[in-house]
Design brief:
- The strands form two sheets. This protein has a five-stranded mixed sheet with strand order 4-7-3-6-5.
- The protein is built from five helices and eight strands.
- The chain is of the alpha/beta class and 235 residues long.
- Among the domains are: 77 residues, Periplasmic binding protein-like II (D-Maltodextrin-Binding Protein, domain 2); 86 residues, D-Maltodextrin-Binding Protein, domain 2 (3-Layer(aba) Sandwich).
- InterPro entries: LysR_subst-bd.
């Protein structure tokens, strides 16, 4: 999906499961869900929203929304803007827009561009401005354009998606990687324990032998000393 960079996850997959190759397929945001349903891919990174019938989806992170403007535009001097700051501006709304707008800010253009890439070209030509997830602004970076954070507008949430009835061991492994589980995590499918063929008696508890006491030595008899009387005086 455009804007998403899975390099870290593919590297971790290669380290943990080198025997199973992980092939990446580039698809548009609108094609990702159908590619999973048609089994063109086992799983897909897509933006939450739209038709997800028959699919599991685990949200991974939410992207900041930004407005793309020419570098010499007055908005380029601000740190962030609000929809009210775009009220007098023409804001382009491409057909492949990934934000779930109730009502886009600014004034609409006479015609909607087919793609986000086409809309970026129109921004560079001074036709209007464009609000997109930050990852798409980086993807379509141009030296003559810049972008600023815009608050109080919809944001794009990126999720990992796969078929509901096909949660395989490989999918569980991929879920663990994108969610940051360690290699020793116990999450996921666990092998069934082997049944014992023969029960073995539990080992008897060994009783510590009490140390024997040495027999007491017989008391030594002491011979009483003869009483000494008074010395007799010779007559």
């Amino acid at each position: 999906m455009p804007g998403v960079i899975p390099a870290k996850w593919t590297r971790m997959w290669a380290e943990r499961s080198p025997e199973v190759p992980l092939d990446l397929v580039q698809v548009t945001a609108g094609e990702a869900a159908d590619q999973v349903r048609e089994r063109g891919v086992h799983a897909a990174l897509l933006r939450v929203g739209g038709d997800r019938d028959g699919l599991h989806a685990i949200p991974l992170y939410t992207e900041v929304s930004v407005v793309v403007v020419p570098k010499d535009h007055v908005i380029a001097a601000a740190d962030e803007v609000t929809p009210g700051d775009l009220a007098d501006e023409i804001v382009l709304h491409p057909l492949d827009d990934t934000l779930d707008w109730v009502s886009p800010p600014g004034r609409p253009a006479l015609q909607r561009p087919d793609t986000t890439g086409d809309a970026v070209e129109l921004v560079a030509a001074g036709i209007g401005l464009l609000v997109v997830p930050q990852s798409l602004a980086r993807l379509h970076h141009r030296k003559d354009l810049t972008y600023r954070t815009i608050t109080d507008v919809p944001q794009s949430q990126v999720a990992l998606s796969w078929l509901e009835d096909e949660t395989t061991d490989e999918v569980e492994q991929l879920i663990g990687i994108v969610r940051g589980r360690t290699v020793n995590s116990t999450r996921g499918r666990q092998p069934e324990p082997a049944q014992a063929t023969k029960s073995e008696p539990a080992p008897a508890k060994a009783q510590a032998a009490k140390p024997r006491r040495k027999p007491a030595a017989p008391a030594r008899r002491t011979q009483a000393a003869p009483k000494r009387g008074k010395p007799r005086r010779r007559g």
